[in-house]
Amino acid sequence: MPNDNCLAGFICPKCGYDTDLRIEVLRWVRVSDDGTEDEGGDTEWNDKSPCACGNPDCAYTATVGDFNELSIVSKTKKTDLPKLLSKLKTDAGLEALEHRLKGRAR
């Protein structure tokens, strides 16, 4: 079943794994001489945040934007596009793939 929350539209461009990703995030913590204390609050990242595939057999590393299905479709060589069909999980990703296969830019 495709992700429908934080990871909707995200897959590993190398192996297609979509269960979890490792993302370098921004978060406030309290730092004292004794160490750090997590204050809770929002966890933030963007398309340029470092990201790694959560599949231990893969561990591909790039940026969050590189794990976005639409980005993957747009960056894939046209001859390799048919291989993406089994990896894509969202309607938007499949639609972008269909447009690329038909030679229409998206």
Strand order of the largest sheet: 1-4-5
Question: Tally the helices: what do you get?
Answer: 2
- The figure for the number of domains is 1
Report the sheet-strand fraction: 15-25%
Short overview:
With 106 residues, this protein is α+β, with helices and mostly antiparallel strands. It is built from 2 helices and 5 strands; from the N terminus they run βββββαα.
Description:
By secondary structure, the chain is of the alpha+beta class. The protein has one domain. 17% of the residues lie in helices and 17% in strands. The chain is built from two helices and five strands. The chain has helices spanning 69-75, 91-101, and strands at residues 21-23, 29-32, 35-38, 50-53, 61-63. Strands 1-4-5 form a three-stranded antiparallel sheet, with no helix packed on it. Strand 4 and strand 5 (61-63) form a beta hairpin. Helix 1 (69-75) runs parallel beside helix 2. The radius of gyration is 17 Å and the shape is elongated.
Main attributes?
106 residues; alpha+beta; two-stranded antiparallel ribbon
SSE layout:
Blueprint: E1 21-23, E2 29-32, E3 35-38, E4 50-53, E5 61-63, H1 69-75, H2 91-101
